[in-house]
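ugh ok fine here u go
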Amino acid sequence: MNTDVRRTLPATAIPDGCLPWTTEHTRRWTRVLPPGWIPVPRVGLRVLKLVLLTGALAALGLTAAGLPPYLATPAGLLLVLLQLRPEAVRVWAPPLALAAVVLRPAPVLPVLAGALLLTAAALAISATRLRARERQREAALTASGGVTAPLPDADRPIGRGRFLSGLGITLILAGVPVMATAGLWDSSEGRAAAAVAGCFVAGLGVTALLSGVLGRRRATALRAAPAPVLRVLVRGRGRGGVKVFAADDVAGLRPLFTVGVVPLDHDTEYDTAVVEEAVTDTVADLADLADLGDVADRARSADRLDDDRAEPLREAVLYGTPYDGAEVVLVSAAPKPGDPPVTERSSGPVRPLSEGGVRRRLERAKRAAARTAADDEEHLGLVEAARLTSPAPVRRWRAGAVDRLSGFLMVVWGVLLYWISTDGDVGLWKDILVVLTGLYGAFRIPVKLCWRVTADRTGLWLNGLRGTTHIPWDDVRSVRRESLELKLRWHGDGSWTVSAPRWARLQRRRGVTHPYDVLAAEVTAMHTDPALRPTGDSEERERGRPLWPLAVPFVLAWLTAVLVGLTGFLDG
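structure:
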């Protein structure tokens, strides 16, 4: 294979006669991909959560419009299946249309027209994707030249599908009781919400169970006989996934598809790292909502960080026929030179990348690279300016005007949330959500308004809700402003974050530097040059006090306001 790739695969790991999947061959494969207007989701929990949220909102919206939950929920789940399991649409969509025709819920004509239109569109889109799969399979088989080889894990137990099947059964068992107890709610909205929630959870369980069964069947079929093999290039994309490139695309310009993978010795398709990713992403999403941040900017930053973590290209042998939804096995060169080849099996379906998607990703990467270069240049300039300052006994930074603005925006957000929650009967489950969301904001406001960073000769001191945290200078990893956040990291996976609004264009026009950039530059200068560090020891009063006492009035005020609003005390 190509010798100019940074990670090469030993010849002993390449089956006899295995052909390279060259750019010329992959052009035919990419030409038969579904049209660009048909979205094919990439592997990733963020995409999965977005699809599930869309389906849930569709089900709730249709129920609010007067459609019965037993029809609204399957319609919302149809959007989920259309993205994740198009092969199941042929089984799911016709009964949905038949139920609408037989039951004829009011309003009859809009419901029938909507059901038939949704069914026809879903069947057409799924048929287009399934036809594209067959063409992708044919193109890949032609490229392999008929060369096959036994899979490295053909004699090992197959764990594929075990996790999803168990998850599906669990969700079904959780959703059915919720549906059964929907009639116990006092209000009609509560009954409808409970029915939708139960149906949706049980429907997701059916989807997960179906995905587990299909994944296991395809993994079993792949190992039943020698599989087609192709020589390719791969690059890790973080969190258990890889991008696959043509064998002669040594610059990594055109990824063909992404696929989640796990090492051969894993007996399930998900491990603790994936679970931690789900929890971390969910918390980050809630923080985005609470801070009223620029979600698009945060998404671009996430893409940039994912690209920064990308591994070098590695030679690999692809076992199986790649197509949308396929199962494969990869034997690739180790990320570290000198280590033996790595064998990984797919933990999820193959997801092709369209020409338009790749082009848009490259454009985003170029813009992100330009922003990163500009931010780095500004940061280095501020660090050099900070080196000209003389050491002080103790240095302190605290919340300023932008933090007060952020706290004000959060209060406004809380007032709007309170107004929505008291404007009519929103249902018990929404009341609980409002209370919990408001409590989160009540604990975040003191941090926004009263955070403090203190530097002395021993290190940095950070005040928080529970108390003060000390980070020795040797443990500090980095301090940078990332999008709307000031993030300080230290060894042991520790981090501290505050966020505030930022207007990059206005700042450049006015020649103003964001306070977070100034703090990050000054702390970075102290961290890299011990001569600039403070010379004295800070006193306890200088390090800030625990912030939880300041949160108590906000918590009590929020709970009192919600209680008054829900009970209608002021109206009586």
